[in-house]
Amino acid sequence: MRLAWIIALLVWAGGAWAHKGATICIDPGHPSEVGPGTRGKKITEMRAVWLVGQKLERRLKARGIKVVMTKSSEKEKVTNRRRAEIANQAQADLMIRLHCDAQSGRGFATYYPDRAGRAQGRTGPSPEVLRQSKLAATAFHSEAARVLRGHLPVLGLYTDRRTKIGAQQGALTGSIFSEVPVLLVELVVLTHPQDEAFILTDAGQEKLAEALEMGILKALAAVRAAPPAKRPKSPAARE
Ligand SMILES: [Zn+2]
User: Fold this and answer.
1) Residue 69 φ/ψ, nearest 5 degrees
2) 86 located within any domain
3) 205 Cα to the center of ligand 1, angstroms
4) CATH no. for residue 191?
5) Distance of alpha carbon 151 from its chain centroid, rounded?
6) Per the structure, how many domains does the chain have?
7) Residues 111-140: pLDDT tens digits?
8) Of the four, 28, 43, 127, 133, which is 20 to 30 A from 98 by CA?
């Protein structure tokens, strides 16, 4: 076989099997120190992200991916710092945080940390986690948007600083304490009637879980395709 063909085959196989042996930390948001989350007229954010999180867990496990959840029941209160620590202890390849928004627009959005922030005496995440989070979030968001096309409007890919807490701290608390690549998804705008109607149905929850699943596979492939440089030279790489 010609070398070019062999290389092409290896690249393809690397993408297709990037998830083998991977660990994903699923973090269904709320209740936390921030509170119980937002609510629609018929479903709460806490309930909606728990249901989608469980569907996502089933899908990833069916692919042989190890899954670590940050909560063992819907109403279990876990701080955002503790949620990050659970992902760190699991040495997750990616932490995905599930939330629903409350604002005037509607649709799906992805957030990632683009700089270190400060909370509870800690500065983070590290430059390497920032690099990997950006790679993961970029690949994740475009694939999730592709799956959701025709089902749910898709807003953008944003940085943590676009959120209220991220603007204050530089990054979200869950990002600051994360030692693994991290992204946060606002699945829908729960205060918008059409978005609430979408996430209220089993089919809508399943579609969202599918979008997350396919996005995660792309994120894993993107991170594995760009491993860290062996010897970081820049002093800025140290915290
Ligand atoms: Zn939330």
Assistant:
1) -100, 150
2) yes
3) 17
4) 3.40.630.40
5) 20
6) 1
7) 999 999 999 999 999 999 999 999 999 999
8) 127
